[in-house]
Structure formats: C-alpha cells, structure tokens
Amino acid sequence: MIARLAIHGGEPVARRAWPRWPAPGRRALRELAQVLHSGRWTISTPYRGRESVEQRFAHAFAAYCGAEHCVPTATGTASLSIALEACGVGAGDEVIVPGLSWVASASAVLGVGAVPVLVDVDPGSFCLDPAAAEAAITDRTRAISVVHVYSAIAEVAALAAIADRHGIPLVEDCAHAHGARYRGRSVGLSGSAGTFSMQGSKLLTSGEGGALITRDAGIARRAEHLRADGRVLSREPVGTGDMELVETAEVMGANACLSEFHAAVLLDQLELLEAHNEVRRRAADHLDDRLTGLGCTVQSTAPGTTARTYYRYAVRVPGELLAIAPLDRIAEALTAELGFPVQRTYRPLNDNPLHRPSSRRRFAADASYLERVEPSRFPLPVTRLVHDSTLTFGHEVLLSDVDGAEHIARAFEKVVANVRLLGE
Ligand SMILES: *Cc1c(COP(=O)(O)O)cnc(C)c1O
C-alpha cells in the first residue's frame, strides 16, 4: 500500500476528536460547592463539625486499594519524599532509583538529602531490573524505589525479596498505576509503602495531589507528621472551632497537606477510575494484537500482573524500521496521521536536562555530595536502548475504546508500510 503520508500533506488516518483529559464526573461540582461553603478549605484550619474531605478521600482510597492506611499529600513528589523519610532514609543514604522515570524519582531522593543511585531497567518492561538493582547495593544503600513505569508492573516479588535480604525498605512509586493489581492486590502494598501522584496527567487526578499507602501503622504515623508540620489528626473527637491537627511534635514535618478542594475532586474522580481503566485496557489489548502483528514489541508487565492499567501506551519499534528512518521522524509521522502527540519515552535520568543537581546551590554545601549525585556517573545502556527505540502516547486517547485503537493501529500500519519515505 503506497499512500501519501499526512506529514507530507496526505490525508491523515484519523480526523477525530480524541477524548480530553482530565474531565469532571457528576459529583465534582456538588463536592466542590460543599467545600466552598464549609468554612474549612484545608485540614490545617479549625474543625467545622463534619469530617474533612481529605479524610473522606483517604478512607475511600485506602478502601479502593485495600490498604490499612492512606496519607494524602499535596503532590506525588511529596508523597515519595515522605515515604522515603518515613522509612528511615536520610542524609547521605543511597536510594536505588530506576533510570527511566519522571525526574521526581530522583528529585524526591535529593529532597531528603539522600543520593539517587540510577539503575538500569529491564528491556521488556522498562521497569527497574532486579539483577541490576541488587548489583548496585552497597553498605550505604537504605532503600529501593521502584516505578511501575507507564503502568507496567515491575518485578515486585523479586525486588521485595532483594530488599528483605538486605534489610532495606522497598518503596513503590505508583504514580502511573492507579488501580493496577499485582497478585490480586493493589500496587503499593508489596513493600513498605506505595506512593501516588494525582497531578493533572495522571489516571486519578485533582490537578495536583498525591497519596501514600502502607500496611505499616508506624510508617503511616510518621508520614502524617511529615506532611502536616509535625502534627497528626486527632484520634479523639474535637469540638467545632477547635484544631483537629494535634501538635505531638514526635517528628518535625513540613506542609504538604492536600487541600479540601483537591480532595473533593479526587472523590469524584475515584468513582470513575475503574470504568476508565476497563475501557483503556480493552483499547490497549486491541492495540497489543495489532501492533505485534506489525512487528512492534509492546511493553511487557511482570508475570504476577492481575490488573494492568495504562498511563502511557508504550511500544518498541523494530530495528529494521529504525535502520531506515529515525525514531523522531516516525513519531512525527504518526502524530500527523493521528492528531495527538506520539512521543519518545522520558530521557534516561543520567542524561536528562531536568535532573541537574549542580544547578541548585543547596546541594553544593558539601562538594562530595555533588559528586555522589552527579547523574552522568551512572551507566544506563538498556534505558538508552529503550529510549532510542520506543514510542509512547497518553492514556486519554485509549478512552476512545477499540474504535480509536483501530485508528491508531491503522496509522502505525500506514507509517510502517511507507517508512522509506521518511528516511529520505
Ligand atoms: C508524576 C510523577 C511523580 C510526581 O508526581 P507530582 O505529583 O508531579 O509531584 C513521581 N513519579 C513519577 C513516576 C511520576 O510520573
């Protein structure tokens, strides 16, 4: 099939309005109006006679995940820093971080004064490679932080076993994987803590927001202190007009509280999550079949995955195509056919302009620290290979179901069939 590519002025495969993200559900306005008139816009102002929305969300999200404890936070980055600190990570400690992730995986570690040790990923799942993680452990390693990148679930059992063997905590960064299940259980519960981002691009969002889940009461209590300036919500009923946050001063904290408005939006969005995940899964299953048929390799997930979600759909382009046309050109051609951005993965964290500790004077207090955190110190050959051969796009287009997925498959088909035109 010879066709003029859209990038060369031909007719695009899809001229459709793709679903937009985020989008409010039915509850959002009602919940927001209640907060607006409640006289309490955050848990750090006096109690007004009814349970905070923040706690209503915490209970709802804990129940959804099957977690004993949930501590909401202002951002996902805060939840990750707080999880690490609540697990005992501190100044100068090494934390194993996957080489392929959003910069927050590294910046959250820097945020607690620790050293992000960038470790290579698995070429199939793009998630932290357990063997590489174990090889990177030293006597200064104090935690392993794993990301279920683009919602593929990492080899959690292997990583948890390594963490146990070395007596260090495993923190699961589930910023891409709200609703994903591993061995029948929510992600985030196989290690010491799981963290979530509710930033605007994520599967569950309030624009900005985050949460930590854990089965460990001690970690939850420290996390509570850390996110509310050393205060925890009273376990006893308090009177209207009284502060619900109690100044225990057990641990000093900072302010990373989720506002009542954000919690209200999250209650609305949580109601939609399962149905959205189901539609995305159906669309992705169709794409998996079609793109595999075209010689592409779809991102794999750990064998124990019992519910896959999709934050970004990721697929590796076969080497034969890359020998003919550069990956960026293929991405541009697909973008032109589809009318939404098809992009490469995150840049490897050892060569990512967003991860540049030397640009912050606060990290220069100790010259040896700057040396230890220098990103280019860490070789990441597999992460580089993945970055040089993988295309991704956002989850919202998968909400167009199998019909939209078929359009996406046809765009790939057209570009693959005409790839020679891109190499010229
Ligand atoms: C989005 C994200 C975060 C951080 O979340 P924010 O809410 O933006 O602070 C952390 N880790 C990963 C993998 C993310 O994608």
Could you provide a short overview of the structure?
This protein is α/β, with parallel strands linked by helices and 424 residues long. It contains 14 helices and 16 strands. It binds pyridoxal-5'-phosphate.
Explain this structure to me?
The structure is a single chain. With 424 residues, the chain is of the alpha/beta class. Helices cover 37% and strands 14% of the residues. It is built from 14 helices and 16 strands. The strands form 4 sheets. Strands 1-9-8-5-4-2-3 form a 7-stranded mixed sheet, sandwiched between helices. Strands 12-14-16-15 form a 4-stranded antiparallel sheet. α4 links the parallel β2 (94-98) and β3 (115-119). The protein is globular, with a radius of gyration of 22 Å. Pyridoxal-5'-phosphate binds next to α3 and α4.
Based on the model shown, name its key terms.
single chain; 424 residues; seven-stranded mixed β-sheet; binds pyridoxal-5'-phosphate
Layout of SSEs?
Blueprint (H helix, E strand, L loop, with lengths): L27 H11 L14 H13 L3 E5 L2 H11 L7 E5 L5 H8 L3 E5 L10 H6 L5 E7 L8 H10 L4 E4 L7 E2 L2 E2 L6 E5 L12 E5 L2 H11 L4 E2 L11 E2 L13 H34 L3 E2 L6 E3 L4 E5 L2 H4 L4 H12 L4 E2 L22 H7 L7 H7 L2 E5 L6 H17 L2 H4 L1
Parallel strand pairs: 2-3, 2-4, 4-5, 5-8
Antiparallel strand pairs: 1-9, 6-7, 6-13, 8-9, 10-11, 12-14, 14-16, 15-16
Which small molecules are bound?
A: pyridoxal-5'-phosphate
Number of helices: 14
The description of the largest β-sheet is: 7 strands, mixed
Overall geometry: globular
Percent of residues in helices: 25-40%
Secondary structure: number of strands: 16
Kindly report the spatial arrangement of strands forming the biggest sheet.
1-9-8-5-4-2-3
SSE order, as H and E?
HHEHEHEHEHEEEEEHEEHEEEHHEHHEHH
The separation of the N and C termini measures: 18 Å
Beta-strand content estimate: 5-15%
